[in-house]
Design a protein that fits this description.
Layout: H1 4-18, E1 21-23, E2 28-33, E3 36-41, E4 57-59, E5 64-73, E6 79-89, E7 95-100, E8 114-118, E9 125-126, H2 132-143
Antiparallel strand pairs: 1-4, 2-3, 3-5, 4-5, 5-6, 6-7, 7-8, 8-9
Length: 145
């Protein structure tokens, strides 16, 4: 990647290529400078309410993915994700969410910097660093085969 604009185009292309998204119209790209910005869907941050209407990226079956990520494009073209939250929710209420905190928590056992929520807010399971395209692949494999 050379800059945030190139990341924007690449990310939209990856979303379209997934074949599982019905509506991506409320993705918001807020560019801070040439190499840094925030991507979110929907524009407002916060967590989805159980039983709420789909918002964010809407999947072909009514599931949705709310997310936000702050990225920096490094001089070598790599992407640093300063923080992120990717909340996937099925129409029946099942959800999982991957989070990366912008800095380590005071109690990393209770809340690891990179963690996964599955079906409940707690416990928070330590996990690897992830990104939106990896999650779309995971979701496609597990829910849309």
């Amino acid at each position: 990647m050379k800059n945030f604009s190139e990341y924007r185009s690449w990310l939209l292309g990856q979303i379209d290529k997934s074949g599982i998204i019905r509506d991506r119209s409320n993705i918001c790209f807020s560019q801070k400078n040439r190499d840094e910005g925030l991507v979110s869907a929907p524009r407002e941050s916060g967590f989805a309410k159980p039983g709420g209407l789909p918002e964010g990226l809407i999947f072909i079956d009514g599931a949705f993915l709310r997310f936000q990520e702050r990225i920096i494009i490094k001089k070598d073209g790599s992407i640093e994700r300063v923080f992120y939250s990717y909340h996937y929710q099925r129409p029946d209420g099942y959800f999982f969410r991957y989070d990366k905190l912008p800095r380590p928590h005071d109690n990393p056992i209770k809340e690891p910097q990179q963690h996964l929520h599955a079906v409940r807010e707690e416990p928070r399971f330590p996990t690897h660093s992830t990104h939106l395209v990896e999650l779309l692949d995971l979701i496609k494999y597990n829910f849309y085969r």
